[in-house]
C-alpha cells in the first residue's frame, strides 16, 4: 500500500510539471495557432533565472521569502523572453505555419547551445529550500516534500488560468478568438494584444515549471527544457489542443502511467507506455479528452 501511495504522489508531482509546461502550449496553440517548439527555452529561462537570482539578486536565496523572490525573478525572465519571441519572431509569421515551425525549432536548438556555451553542459546544483529536501509520512509512505509543492503550484496555476479565461475580458477575447478570430477582429478588438498576453502567460507558466523542475530534480541543465517539452506536447495532444482542463487531466494520466509502468516493469517502459497511450487515444478520440479551450 505504501508503495502505491508513493508512486501515486510522485506521479502527481511529475504530472504537475507536465501541466505547467503544457498549459502555455495549449493557450498559445488555442488562440494563436502556433506550435511553439521553442517553449522549452522559456522553461530554461525560469530555471537558470531562479538559479542565478538565488545567488546574486539582493534579498533572494534558497529559503523562505528569498526563494519566492528568486522564483519570481525566474518567472519574470520567462515571461519577458516569451513576449520578445512573439513580437520579434512569431508575429511576422502568423500566416506562415511552416516558417513558424522552422523558426521555433531553430530557436530551441540555439537556446540550448547558448546555455551550454555560457554555463556549461554539466548540470548545476539547484538552490532547493531545506523544507523540500525533507519527507512526510502519508499512509505509511515516505513522500518527498517537493511533490506537494509541485502539486500545489499546479493547482494554483490551473485555478488562475480558469478564472482568467472565464471571468476576465482578456479571457473572453481569448475564448472568442479561438472560436472565430476574424469576427473578433471585425468587432474592433486588437487580437494581437491577446496573442502577446497569451505568450507572456505561457512563458511565465513554463518558467515556473523550470524553477520547480530544479527543485524536483535537484539541478538544472541546458537540455532539461527539451526533455520536459516532449511530454508536454503529448499532454497537449491527449488533453485536446487548446484545452487547459484537458491538459490538466492528461498530465495526471501521463504522469501516473509513466511512474507505475516504470516501477512495475523495467526502466523506459513508462515512456513507451505514454507514447502507446497517445497512439490509442488518437485512434479512438482524435480531438483529445476535451478538445476545446476551457
TrEMBL record:
The membrane-topology field of this record reads: Multi-pass membrane protein
Please state where this protein is localized: Cell membrane
- At the top level, the lineage of the source is Bacteria
Under InterPro entries, the record lists: ABC_transp_permease (IPR001851), BCAA_transport_permease (IPR052157)
**UniProt KW keywords:** Amino-acid transport, Cell membrane, Membrane, Transmembrane, Transmembrane helix, Transport
**GO cellular component, as recorded:** plasma membrane
Segments passing through the bilayer: 6-27, 34-53, 65-89, 101-119, 148-165, 193-217, 229-256, 263-284
Tell me the CDD domains matching this sequence.
TM_PBP1_LivH_like (cd06582)
**Gene Ontology terms describing biological process:** amino acid transport
Mention one GO molecular function. transmembrane transporter activity
The family this protein is said to belong to: Belongs to the binding-protein-dependent transport system permease family. LivHM subfamily.
Q: What is this protein called?
A: Branched-chain amino acid ABC transporter permease
Write down the species: Virgisporangium aurantiacum
**Upper classification of the organism:** Bacteria, Bacillati, Actinomycetota, Actinomycetes, Micromonosporales
